[in-house]
Amino acid sequence: MSATKSSIPADSPEWLAIVREKVESLRFGVVQIVVHDRKVTQIERTEKTRLDSSEAEATARRPGS
Length: 65
Prior knowledge:
By secondary structure, the protein is an alpha+beta fold. The protein has one domain. Helices cover 31% and strands 26% of the residues. It has helices at 14-24, 53-61; strands at residues 29-36, 39-47. The protein has a two-stranded antiparallel sheet with strand order 1-2. The longest helix is centred in the N-terminal third of the chain and has 11 residues, at 14-24. It is elongated and about 55 Å long.
């Protein structure tokens, strides 16, 4: 992905700005666009939290886990 931000034209649909904001604020995850009758009706964002492997192993070894 590019580090530069391109501007959204003023005449773009509102949903496009919403999708852009959700993607830009997401580190790991999925943004889904739901379309019904050729119109965007819903935008879903699923975010994942990733642990580096040493943190995950330490969590797995804790008593009571």
